[in-house]
Amino acid sequence: MGERVRVRKDRDERREQILVCARELFSERPYEEVSNTEIAAVAGVSRGLLNHYFGTKRELYLAVVERMLHIPPVPVPAYEPGASVRERVTESITGWLELLERNAGTWLVALDMAAGTAGDDELARLVDAAREGAVDHITEVVGLSRLAAEHPEVRSALRGFSGMAEAATREWLRHGRLTRPQVHLLLEDTIMHLIEETVPRMTAEA
């Protein structure tokens, strides 16, 4: 039994090593300039083993993009008696920005990849799934999961907020035109205005 567990762990470790090396190479150079042979060499595995795990370079690339777009989410703050929605929002945004700051390079490359989905249906689906997951997280933090399920316009509004959050973090991490405290203020005030003012008006009209 112990040997089987060890074999599985070795396979998982090799697959993870391939993904890490592929991510680094795709982050440094355009897709067309990176080959599976180079990735295998950098990862220290055979070309055959790489193909066994991922098949084509295209399949490996999609696996890398999916991994990069799904930076582990910040846990939803536990419900504390007396805690306000703003306090939960503050805690969640603080954790998210800390996570992005630690993974700035990966996040920026993921945003670049997400921006290049025109005409690529598979890549577009990966990006869309990642953004839907972000909206799920937001609705849980602010307590709007049920309302968003009943009112598609609420979910669409939160998709818009998610896109703004992506743009704001790019301004901070890539261009330096916003500071982290400014990004936090922008996101916190915007989401609070959405849930306190905009969403009630939208659902009332609906």
Automatic annotation (TrEMBL):
<feature type="domain" description="HTH tetR-type">
    <location>
        <begin position="12"/>
        <end position="72"/>
    </location>
</feature>
<dbReference type="Pfam" id="PF00440">
    <property type="entry name" value="TetR_N"/>
</dbReference>
<feature type="DNA-binding region" description="H-T-H motif">
    <location>
        <begin position="35"/>
        <end position="54"/>
    </location>
</feature>
<dbReference type="GO" id="GO:0003700">
    <property type="term" value="F:DNA-binding transcription factor activity"/>
</dbReference>
<protein>
    <submittedName>
        <fullName>TetR/AcrR family transcriptional regulator</fullName>
    </submittedName>
</protein>
<dbReference type="InterPro" id="IPR009057">
    <property type="entry name" value="Homeodomain-like_sf"/>
</dbReference>
<keyword id="KW-0804">Transcription</keyword>
<dbReference type="Pfam" id="PF21943">
    <property type="entry name" value="TetR_C_46"/>
</dbReference>
<dbReference type="InterPro" id="IPR054129">
    <property type="entry name" value="DesT_TetR_C"/>
</dbReference>
<dbReference type="GO" id="GO:0000976">
    <property type="term" value="F:transcription cis-regulatory region binding"/>
</dbReference>
<dbReference type="InterPro" id="IPR050109">
    <property type="entry name" value="HTH-type_TetR-like_transc_reg"/>
</dbReference>
<dbReference type="InterPro" id="IPR001647">
    <property type="entry name" value="HTH_TetR"/>
</dbReference>
<keyword id="KW-0805">Transcription regulation</keyword>
<keyword id="KW-0238">DNA-binding</keyword>
